[in-house]
Design brief:
single chain, about 525 residues, mainly alpha, 2 domains, four-stranded antiparallel beta sheet, two-stranded antiparallel sheet, 16 helices, 8 strands, about 60% helix
Length: about 525
């Protein structure tokens, strides 16, 4: 339907504020139509008088649901309602994102984007282009959010009655923030893929954004896993609560849809449990790894997955390690995206990632909880500041350590890189010379060793042949024996005995001018 609003002539494009107003009206119309249909089905299946008198009560209820989808609370007699399903926020978020895409095409924002710069452009030009893109993205977000919030304020005024009174300030703020985020993302998506969108941010901000997103995503996945495990373990209690309500077929479908919409709230409560502070289901209650203390809980089948009151097994404390693991992964991502030139800065940026993750976790904790009237149920959900502090410390410490170690490894690798690059040409030149020499025959082409002993003939000729005598003695013992022999009187020396010539070697009587050749190489020592 939005596509028909755009003219066929490219020269008659609407101004950006006009396109934003049309997109806001379209989003509100489609969203209210969807919720009115759902409310009408519930009005038909519910007892008379539950949703007000007739069709006006149906429309008023649908409008209040639309405000609740943006997390705008209500004042009721004796208290207020702030525990709203986070899953219901998906409907306006998707509609706003689609409307933002249409607005960007209708206003032809692609042509208004700065031209793509050539490679190796100066940093000043690249920075100016990025700032111009960010300004255009912000303008598009405001163009969609401003009329959207004004229309939401009108709806809050119309739906107010003596029983439920929407908070107009919360309605304006929540509608503006959600529409601004959706419109900005939709416009930035027109620039290119998601990785290009991240390049619009400075390097440090981009690293913190990615690290925070990774740590938060890991916490959410761990919370979802914990909710599913608890649901499977306590499935009998969930089934019993569903049977007590006996809503019927249509009512059962609507009840299942309501629990599905509150599933995101339960996931946030679960990762608040993992972080340590836990959450409450009423005043003076607590569900945490240190223990469970519950009272009377509302008859919602999803709450049947809660553990029983009493001490928690010791092994459940192991879930506290999940935030540290998430912080370690986030620290690696931060150091890889934006390495720090100094060793001291990387751990600080890692810890700052933990702080931003704690702020996001605290915001989710605040959105997931809230009062359900007055009295005991005025406190439901996790404590935002406790969750924020716990997540900031746990994720921040682990992220700081992992970012410091990763940054150190990256700096050492970069320090070795110039040496390797400088030696690379020398290695290539040597390999080329060796290859050319082998081709012309100046080098041995066959690298295999020659057969035979490891000591070739040339080396053997240069080695002295060792001489081993049978009459060798220790020099100290010989010196002592010589000293003692000099002290004693010497007996008369016997006359030398002439030895006969050795016929087995050579005839020594032959003096015909030739050299003596010994067959035995050690024979010269025995002359």
């Amino acid at each position: 339907m939005l596509g028909k609003l755009a003219g066929d002539d490219d020269e008659t494009r609407r101004p950006l504020p006009v396109s934003g107003m049309l997109a806001a009206v379209f989003t509100l119309g489609v969203g209210l139509a969807a919720l009115t249909t759902l409310t009408l089905v519930g009005w038909i299946a519910a007892p008379r008088g539950t949703l007000g008198a007739g069709l006006p009560g149906v429309f008023r209820t649908a409008a209040q649901l639309w405000l609740a989808a943006h997390h705008a609370g209500f004042a009721i007699p004796g208290g207020r309602v702030g525990l709203l399903p986070l899953g219901l926020m998906i409907l306006p978020a998707v509609l706003l994102y689609r409307a933002g895409r249409w607005m960007a095409r209708d206003a032809d924002l692609r042509l208004r984007l700065p031209a793509r710069l050539p490679k190796n452009s100066p940093k000043e030009q690249a920075g100016a282009r990025r700032r111009a893109q960010l300004v255009l993205v912000v303008q598009a977000g405001v163009s969609l959010a401003a009329p959207y919030a004004l229309l939401a304020g009108l709806i809050a005024l119309v739906t107010s009655n003596e029983i439920t009174q929407p908070f107009i300030g919360e309605a304006l703020l929540s509608h503006f923030v959600l529409a601004f985020l959706a419109g900005s993302l939709a416009t930035a998506r027109m620039i290119g893929p998601w990785r290009v969108m991240l390049r619009l941010l400075p390097e440090r901000v981009r690293a913190l954004t990615v690290g925070t997103a990774v740590a938060t995503a890991l916490l959410v996945v761990a919370g979802l896993a914990l909710v599913l495990i608890a649901f499977v373990i306590n499935f009998e209690q969930v089934e019993q609560l569903s049977g007590v309500l006996s809503p019927g077929f249509v009512g059962g479908v609507l009840l299942a849809l309501l629990q599905l919409l509150y599933l995101l709230n339960a996931v946030v409560w679960a990762f608040s449990y993992i972080a340590g502070p836990g959450f409450a289901i009423g005043a003076d209650t607590l569900v945490a790894p240190t223990g469970v203390q519950l009272g009377t809980v509302p008859s919602l089948p999803l709450l049947g997955a809660l553990p029983e009151s009493g001490p928690v097994p010791a092994w459940m404390m192991a879930v506290v390690a999940v935030p540290f693991a998430a912080g370690a992964v986030a620290g690696v991502m931060v150091a890889r995206i934006s390495p720090s030139p100094s060793y001291e800065a990387a751990p600080l940026w890692g810890f700052l990632t933990g702080v931003t993750t704690g702020l996001v976790a605290g915001l989710l904790a605040a959105l997931s909880g809230g009062p359900m009237g007055g009295g005991r149920l005025a406190t439901v959900g996790p404590s935002p500041w406790e969750v924020a502090l716990s997540v900031a410390l746990e994720v921040g410490v682990a992220a700081g350590i992992s970012a410091g170690v990763t940054n150190l490894l990256l700096l050492n690798k970069r320090a070795r890189a110039p040496l390797d690059k400088a030696a690379a040409p020398v290695r290539k030149a040597g390999a080329a010379l060796a290859k050319a020499a082998s081709r012309v025959g100046l080098a041995e082409s066959d690298p295999r060793p020659l057969p035979g002993h490891w000591m070739d003939a040339t080396e053997a000729d240069t080695q002295e042949i060792p001489v081993i005598r049978d009459d060798w003695q220790d020099e100290h013992a010989s010196a002592e024996a010589e000293t003692q022999a000099q002290a004693r009187p010497r007996p008369p020396e016997p006359a030398p005995v002439a030895r006969p010539p050795r016929k087995d070697i050579v005839d020594e009587s032959d003096d015909r001018g030739g050299h003596v050749i010994y067959v035995d190489p050690y024979a010269w020592d025995r002359d």
